[in-house]
Amino acid sequence: MKKISKKQKDCVIALYQGTDLPNYTIAKICGVATGTMYKILEERNVIPKRLTEISVDEVDKAVAMYESGCKVSDILEHCNVSQPRLYAEIDARGIERRNCRYTQIRGTRVHPKRKQILKEYQKGHSYSEIERKLGVSDMTVRKYVEQAIEAGEIKISKRYETQEAEYLQDVASVIVRSTQEVSIREVAKALKVDEKKLYYRVTRAKNK
Predict the structure, then answer these.
(1) How many CA atoms lie within 13 A of 45 on its CB side?
(2) Which pLDDT score is estimated for 163?
(3) Total tally of structural domains belonging to the chain
């Protein structure tokens, strides 16, 4: 079985949450099977859109049990709520997760390796190098580096343009390979990349 890369998983999450593309199309763009896509959603605690709505009372009961200190396994056993739905409700209500991998900074959940990510970037390392060294996703690296650059916290690396071009090329290649019609605007918005640059890369990929 072919191993699913972090980039493919990040692509699934971004497109699933940021666009209205059909699941089949998202799976095709990201190069995974539809069944695998649902496994990735479950792994990242994303509630599948196809799931039916659960009663408000049931959700409130599950959240109350979590706040009282009950084990998640016990909550799932006694309430008609999935684990992804439970965590989504906890996050939406501003309740801190137990044993959470993220810290709270100014009301925002921040990855514990954020400082290391920025440090490695300032040393001149590429996104992929930081991803491999720190064991974080490409999307996580991009997110914190670009936020820091925008805030003026760090200076832009000389390798940034090259890294961005490589990333856009990868995205463009999966779009071109897709047998379904894909909205470049929706994909660009979901992945937080420049729409014009992505369109240019897609056009180049089609003409090869």
Answers:
(1) 12
(2) 67
(3) 3
Q: What is the DSSP string of 125-193?
A: --HHHHHHHHT--HHHHHHHHHHHHHTTSSPPPTTHHHHHHHHHHHHHHHHHH-SS---HHHHHHHHT-
* Domain enclosing residue 139, as ranges: 110-150
Q: Are residues 79 and 36 in the same domain?
A: yes
> pLDDT for 3-38, tens place per residue?
788 878 888 888 888 777 767 778 778 878 877 887
Per-residue confidence (pLDDT) for residue 48, from 0 to 100: 64
**Structure tokens that stand for 136 in this block:** 């974080």
| 29 falls within a domain | yes
Residue 22: inside a domain = yes
- pLDDT tens for each residue of 70-92: 888 778 767 767 677 787 788 77
In a domain, 155, yes or no: no
| 186: nearest Cα among 14, 38, 27 | 14
CA 68 to chain CA mean position, Å: 30
| Residues 195 and 136 reside in one and the same domain | no
Residue with tokens 């059909």: 22
How confident is the prediction for the chain on average, in pLDDT? 76
- The pLDDT-based confidence of 109 (bands split at 50, 70, 90) is low
The Cα–Cα gap between 28 and 19 comes to 14
What mean pLDDT comes out for the span 193-200? Answer: 84
